[in-house]
Amino acid sequence: MTEQAVASTPPARRFRIGDSSFALVVSIAVLVMMILFLVIPVGSILLRSFVGATGWGLENYTETLQSGRVWELVGNSLAVAVLTTILSLALAYIYAYAIQRTHVLFKGFLRLVVMTPLFAPSLVQAQGLIFLFGRNGAFNRFLGFDFDIYGFWGIVLADVLYTFPYAFLILSAALAASDARLYEGAVVMGAKPFRIFRTITLPSTRYGIAAAGFVVFSLTITDFGNAIVIGGDFNVLATEIYNKVIGQGKFGLGAVIGVLLLAPAVISKLLERRIAKRQHALITDQSKPLTVRDNRRRDLIFGLYTYAVACVFLAVPLIVLLASLVKLWPYNLAFSLKHYSFDVQNGAQPLWNSIGVAFATAIFGVILVTVAAIVSQKFRTPLRGPISFLAILPTSIPGMVLGLGYVLAFNSTANPLNVLYGTFPLIVLLYVYYNHAQGFLIATTSLKQISATFDEASTMLGGSQLRTLFRVTLPILWPTLFGVGVFFFMRAMVSLSAVIFLITPQTQVAAVSVLQLSDRGANNQAAAFSVCIMLIVLAALLLARCVLWLAGARHVSLIR
Amino acid sequence: MALQIEGLTKSFGKVKALSDLTLTIPESSFTCFLGPSGCGKTTLLRVIAGLEVAEEGSIRLSDRDMSRTPPAERNFGMVFQSYSLFPNLTALQNVLYGLECRGWAKPERISRAMEMLDLVQLADQAHKLPSQMSGGQQQRVAIARALAPRPTLLLLDEPLSALDANVRAELRGEFRSIQKELAITTIMVTHDQSEALEMADRIVVLNGGRIEQVGSPFEIYTHPKNRFVADFIGNFNVMQVGVAADGAIEFGSQTLTAGPDAKGMDLLGIRPEAISISPEPLDMGNALFGEVTKVRFLGNIQVLTVRPDCAPDQPLDVQLHGPEFIPQPRDRICLNFGAESLCGLSQ
User: Fold this and answer.
1) Any idea where the domains of chain A sit in the sequence?
2) Reduced to 3 states, what is the DSSP secondary structure of residue A413?
3) Confidence category of residue A23, pLDDT binned at 50, 70, 90
4) Do A453 and B77 touch (CB under 8 A)?
């Protein structure tokens, strides 16, 4: 008997790739993509900020930091961001409180209304405010007011509206988690409502408040669309990059401001992560959910507040819709559909481009984040650490900065991928990697919820990792991944700041058209574009909801 | 096929889950790994399955070294505690899964899968999804799934502990009869001693990554080797005894007569049900007088705690069946037991 006696192998199997080499190849591919489309663009910004007219050095930094202007811009940006954060948090907290802790009517409607900014191009708030309060706005024109909305207050107001849904989603989740035992204890001990709020409600939601604060702050300080439309002569860092790069072609100086913008965003993200780590264990499995008691007076007060806020949120898209449907706002209010004929430079082409780009972003985005999530969760290769880190890096990179990084990286003929420059695929990749973190986190979370024993059961039955993936994991996961696709679609339809530098006349997308049209004063056509974008996003959401409903997956949230 | 395990060592960080463990599992036997949580029983099963890799030692199946074989190629069947049926596949598709992995032809695999479902009496549920079945049904499908590809070894990881008590009792018998019918070498991990006693041919008691005792359920129950096994398998009275110069066993102030395996041991054990009570000594070999300190009524049995006169600091439990005669606290009674019911325990 020799070694050959061992030849009593199990029945013949089909050929299959070795699991470990397959895992390694896929992991390397994911990492290479991340390096090409994330690390190199961000690296290019850092690198370029050190390249001045006379070669390498700190020239750009000294030039930028020595001028008084940059400090004024930093001051402006900080002032806008701090004030917006305070206002947005306070308003969203009360709104979320009303929905979670009182009996206001039509909560579903109230929830949906404040989400509208997520469905609209990220400058529609400024657009709407101008139609309402601008020089030719409804209030000044027809009601005899004399508002001057352009400038600091305009940006703050627009950004409050723009950031409100993000703050609301976080605060609402924080307020939804509550432990009735604490409240019952306080009531039994005779605490009055305000005292209960101060000693129980506020402390138990402080992490949510902090998290929402960081999100709002970094959204505001990097927001470009609203600031450029309604800012007037009031400049902030985000608009300055645009002026330096598009207006003056000074890429080095733009890169320096990009680095400046990166700093607060990164710091607030790091703080947010530290705080999020301490957030757990507030609610244990023994907690009893709070039931809201009846209180007519309280419900009335909160009802008035929520409906007032809802009116403001409805007013913005409605006035934009109205402006798109009249002959010439505000001089000729006769009904007209002529702005929807899009007899401008590219016609309706930007809309079709946007839809195409958004679909491609959805498909590639889902594939890329799913593969990244599987690689980081299931494949035990040494690359999983760096991949997880890079996968969530984009949350701390402002869209404009990443966009500028793409220009710097791919515009250079030294880059073999230079052929991508000025094409739709590069725009799609930018959208995918700009939104990579959120998509990745959703995919990872649901992967974690799929018990590891499915993998083990499949292995014990003789299945390879690939078979487990296609027969078990993906069929369980698809509704969530579908939701991730909808998220990518929405973001690609509405976000403006990321692609602003990558657009060429041949690759125009709708959100940028809105900006350029309102820049030229073609406000009614800009409004028509905005309305079309909103309708497309709403239609996509509705369609997605129907698909999920028909498939029996009703608990997938599509709005994030 | 017999399984030989030699010198297995495995640690998680600083915790040693298995230390130098050697064991043979005979062919066609039903072996239970029994022990408290954290004793290494599940780790041992997972190392056998190949889901964990041991740092040292070997696993051989009929003299063929399996230590480096990937789990997917070991051809072992496994059933998990949490059912772990694939939720998107029907019962039949779940059972077919392993056959598809092995490239069986379609007609063969369908007839094999139906045969397996028939074996667990679920052929009529073949097209249901796991979520439409009860826990017991799911676990039966899991058994059918594990057995379908004709594994050489069946591994059961606490397969019954997630089920309701009555379903558990039913499945104990069913698993055991399937195992006997197919004569498949089976290893089950459990922390429930009554499950192990009822189902196993052989029990391996594990503690702290080491084997405490291997034996038939009868041996383990009646003659635990040491204090740990005695405590873990049901209730046991453990008596600290002295050994006189002539070898006599002294329990406090009284001398006991015991079998040969108790010679020279300073710890003796006796099952509470091996003790009979009476007003006056019966002729059973040993008789101790004592005072009842506590009576617990547990339905079909009563447990008396008695303080023996000879060793008042070492109370003994006595189990009585049926309510024919229940002493009260402070009653004086006599405890009688035979020499052979005493067993010597190492520390």
Assistant:
1) 19-41+351-509
2) coil
3) confident
4) no
Partnered with residue B24 across adjacent β-strands are B4
Contact with chain B for residue A248, Cβ under 8 A: no
Residues 6+ apart with CB under 8 A from A516: none
Q: Regarding predicted confidence, which is higher, B120 or A187?
A: B120
Q: What pLDDT band is residue A285 in, cutting at 50, 70 and 90?
A: low
Contacts of B319 by beta carbon, 8 Å cutoff, 6+ apart: B235, B271, B272, B273, B275, B301, B302, B303
Pairwise CB contact (< 8 Å): B86 & A19: no
Using CB atoms, pick whichever of B82, B87, B101 lies closest to residue A462: B101
When CB atoms are compared, the residue of A10, A456, A459 closest to B102 is A10
The Cα of B270 is separated from the nearest Cα of chain A by a number of Å equal to 42
CATH number for the domain whose boundaries are B235-344: 2.40.50.100
C-alpha R_g of chain B? 24
pLDDT band at A97 (very low <50, low <70, confident <90, very high): very high
The torsion angles phi and psi of A170, rounded to 5 degrees, stand at: -70, -45
SS3 content of chain A, % helix, strand, coil (to 5): 75, 0, 25
Query: Are A457 and B101 an interchain contact pair (Cβ–Cβ within 8 Å)?
Result: no
Inter-residue contact A102 to A295 (CB < 8 Å): yes
Answer with the residue of higher pLDDT: A70 or A431. Answer: A431
| CATH H superfamily, domain B3-228 | P-loop containing nucleotide triphosphate hydrolases (3.40.50.300)
Return the pLDDT at A538: 92
Reported as type and span, the H/E element at residue B97 is helix B91-101
**ipTM, interface predicted TM-score of the complex:** 0.83
CB contact under 8 A, A10 and B103: no
3-state helix, strand, coil in chain B (%, to 5): 30, 35, 35
pTM of the entire structure?
0.82
Say what percent of chain A tops pLDDT 90.
30
Residues of B in contact with A11 (CB under 8 A): 102-104
Token code pair at residue A18: 């070795």
- Average pLDDT for consecutive 10-residue bins of chain B (347 residues)? 88 87 92 91 92 89 86 90 88 94 92 94 92 92 94 92 88 92 94 91 93 92 88 86 85 87 84 89 89 88 91 91 78 90 84
pLDDT tens per residue, range A366-395? 999 999 998 888 887 888 888 888 888 777
Question: Span A34-54, mean pLDDT?
Answer: 87
Distance from A475 to chain B by nearest Cα, in Å?
7
A19-41+351-509 CATH: 1.10.3720.10
Nearest CA in chain B to A451: B84
Q: Which of B101, B102, B131, B152 would you mutate first to test chain A, the one with the most A CBs within 10 A?
A: B101
pLDDT (0 to 100) of residue A183: 83
What is the residue type of B70?
P
Structure tokens at B181: 């019918």
Could you tell me the residue ranges of all domains in chain B?
Answer: 3-228, 235-344
Three-state secondary structure call for residue B51: coil
Query: Given an 8 Å threshold on Cβ–Cβ distance, is B71 in contact with A13?
Result: no
Rounded to whole angstroms, how far apart are CA atoms A379 and A383? 9
- B309's enclosing H/E stretch is none
* Nearest-Cα residue of chain B relative to residue A1: B63
Residue A451 near chain B (CB below 8 Å): yes
Determine the Cα angle at A214 with ends A209 and A216, to 5°.
Answer: 90
* CA neighbor of A393 nearest in space, from A42, A30, A33: A42
**Banded model confidence at residue A283, pLDDT cuts 50, 70, 90:** low
- Tell me the CA end-to-end span of chain A in Å, nearest whole number: 66
Chain B nearest CA to A133, separation (Å): 55
**CB burial of residue A421 (10 Å; 0-12, 13-18, 19+):** middle
